[in-house]
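wait is this the right file?? whatever heres the structure
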């Protein structure tokens, strides 16, 4: 009987040690005093028992229990075991932060704008996650990629068929030959351009000489015109001086009034003679009849 009691006590102690050890490995401190709060989330995002609760980067508690909300049919209520020294105001918020390496954690943001605190057993206002990078990749990107796989496979098959076609090799060889010909043409064009450089220089020199000759010719023609105009002006001045002078016939005709009067009188006499000749022709013409 004494031996059976010892075995029973050892079994109870072993079970207690296993329970404490398992909870310790989960991060649940059984013998540490804690304050219980609750939070409700529509999507837990991998939040489980022993998920840490973080305030300003410091762990202040863990998730003690998770219960599914059967009344609404979605979401879950999370039981939190927090440090008794943490005082939570009514405007505080708790949200889920997903870390791809360490898993999910609950981040508690305590508002200090008010002194109204929650009591033990109250529900902390929560913000349900809208979707982290991992969930977005799992729920949206991977299905889209999966739907695109048939199209990608068909494209790869067509590309493989196109690459195995012998006509592609022929086209590539023709393209290579055309490229070689084009390179040869460019080389010939470069050599031609190099040989044309002296010709271009000669043409530029010839153009410069023509410009110089044209300017000189223009200057010579202008000088000749000016000289001819000067000679013509001098001659006109000489004629004008002779016309104003009385030592020549033209000057006398233009400047001597007596000569003008005599010429006018002569013209008047000639006019009278002509009228008299018309009126009395017998006076001047005699006919004799044999």
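ok assuming it is, sequence goes like this
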């Amino acid at each position: 009987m004494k031996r059976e009691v010892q075995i029973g006590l050892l079994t109870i102690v072993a079970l207690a040690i296993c329970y404490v050890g398992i909870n310790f490995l989960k991060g649940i401190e059984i013998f540490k005093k804690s304050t219980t709060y609750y939070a409700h989330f529509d999507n837990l995002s991998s939040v489980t028992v022993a998920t840490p609760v973080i305030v300003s980067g410091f762990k202040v508690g863990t998730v003690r229990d998770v219960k599914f909300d059967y009344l609404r049919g979605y979401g879950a209520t999370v039981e939190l075991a927090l440090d008794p020294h943490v005082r939570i105001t009514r405007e505080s918020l708790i949200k889920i932060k997903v870390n791809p390496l360490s898993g999910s954690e609950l981040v508690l943001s305590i508002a200090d704008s008010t002194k109204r605190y929650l009591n033990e057993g109250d529900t902390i206002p929560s913000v349900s996650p809208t979707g982290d990078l991992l969930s977005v990749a799992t729920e949206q990107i991977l299905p889209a990629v999966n739907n695109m796989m048939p199209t990608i496979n068909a494209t790869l098959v067509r590309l493989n068929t196109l690459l195995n076609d012998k006509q592609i090799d022929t086209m590539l060889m023709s393209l290579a030959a055309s490229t070689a010909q084009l390179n040869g043409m460019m080389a010939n064009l470069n050599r031609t351009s190099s040989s044309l450089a002296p010709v271009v220089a000669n043409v530029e020199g010839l153009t410069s000489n023509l410009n110089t000759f044209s300017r000189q010719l223009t200057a010579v023609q202008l000088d000749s015109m000016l000289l001819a105009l000067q000679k013509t002006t001098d001659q006109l001045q000489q004629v004008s001086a002779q016309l104003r002078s009385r030592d020549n016939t033209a000057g006398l005709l233009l400047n001597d009034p007596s000569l003008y009067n005599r010429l006018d009188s002569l013209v008047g006499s000639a006019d009278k003679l002509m009228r008299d000749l018309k009126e009395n022709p017998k006076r001047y013409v005699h006919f004799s009849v044999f």
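The radius of gyration is 65 Å. so i think its the right one actually
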